[in-house]
Amino acid sequence: MFKIKTYNAISVKGLNRFPREKYEVASDIGQPDAYILRSHKLHGEALPESVKAVARAGAGTNNVPVEEYTKKGVVVFNSPGANANAVKELVLTGMLLGSRGILPGMAYVNSLTHMTDADEMSKLLEKEKSNFAGFELQGKTLGIVGLGAIGSLIADAALALGMNVVGFDPALSVEAAWRLPSQVGRMENLQSLLARSDYITLHVPAIPATKHLINADTLKVCKKGATLLNFAREAIVDAHAVVESLDAGHLGKYICDFPEPILLNRHDVYAMPHIGASTEEAEENCAIMAADQLVDYLENGNIKNSVNFPAVAMDRNAEIGARITFSNENVSGVLGHVLSVLADHKVNVVDMVNKSRGDVAYNIIDVEVAPSAQVIDALAKVEHVIAVRVI
């Protein structure tokens, strides 16, 4: 039996992906094989030696001490794209709210509680409605920073609304490039995108390279009156620089999913309570993806959508005696040493795959006969090997 410890409220549809005959799933399990969680912060918590993997039901993994876990051979999964549609719809909502006088208009209407005559109210609103006039999205230019799963969906939707779309992503993958509509103009750098866009939406991860990507200097490049949208991560935008730009009349509006005290009670800031992925469908999709990835890893050793290990997969052959997986520091000679140990113990290798990512490597080796505890102990003692499993 595999043991899965849950944190937060994980969608039942996700938890049902763990076959009950093979898995014990609960929030109070001791010595678990894996964690599945949403926003619970694992920093500072003791990690049982039994834990082999952590799956985040969502895209960001800021709540997981990834570097620490990597050194222990713990694979950290996320679920990229599973909440993409939910975020896309909220970004569109933000653009529409920012382009029309919807929120101030509704606030004005709700302030008319002293009026009792419907005809009188109608006449007053007809007179005052010009105060809430806005702009149409059609014909405006949307700049998308980050062209992954969410960015490409937003590009599709914006094009359907008649907008011009430009994008910038220095780390655009081949897969993402195929997903991207051909009508999207590729910008060579961030500054070119900012200078051209009426609306700017951010969809990059929060990593050291993107901290305060939008700051006092980059905001100066923005088109005057532009609307900035941040539904990615709080750290990407310097909120103080945004407020200064708004106060100077350069940036038009800031619409985000990350309220900060400095942003409150401003007519030119619409701050939402971090609800980008808070839909029933997104939570289900993230939980299902996270659970499926854990099952495939625990049962087959395959890795997909890990933030700290390479993507590795190899089909299982029912006639093969066992599968050995091991992670190691990415230095030369480790795999050769492991294969020598297997050869010395007369363990015949049938198939194998080896991949690396940064400072870590991961290996899957299928063997004819399940190795003895003595063999596994010898493999674990190979220099630079981090963790060994037999499946």
TrEMBL record:
Single GO MF descriptor: NAD binding
E.C. numbers: 1.1.1.399, 1.1.1.95
Family note: Belongs to the D-isomer specific 2-hydroxyacid dehydrogenase family.
Keywords per UniProt: NAD, Oxidoreductase
Top-level taxonomic group: Bacteria
Function summary: Catalyzes the reversible oxidation of 3-phospho-D-glycerate to 3-phosphonooxypyruvate, the first step of the phosphorylated L-serine biosynthesis pathway. Also catalyzes the reversible oxidation of 2-hydroxyglutarate to 2-oxoglutarate.
Pfam family, one: 2-Hacid_dh_C
Protein name from the UniProt record: D-3-phosphoglycerate dehydrogenase
Pathway: Amino-acid biosynthesis; L-serine biosynthesis; L-serine from 3-phospho-D-glycerate: step 1/3
Domain ACT, first and last residues per copy: 323-391
UniProt xrefs under PROSITE patterns: ACT, D_2_HYDROXYACID_DH_1
Species name: Cellvibrio mixtus
Keyword Lipid metabolism: no
Catalytic reactions on record: (R)-2-hydroxyglutarate + NAD(+) = 2-oxoglutarate + NADH + H(+); (2R)-3-phosphoglycerate + NAD(+) = 3-phosphooxypyruvate + NADH + H(+)
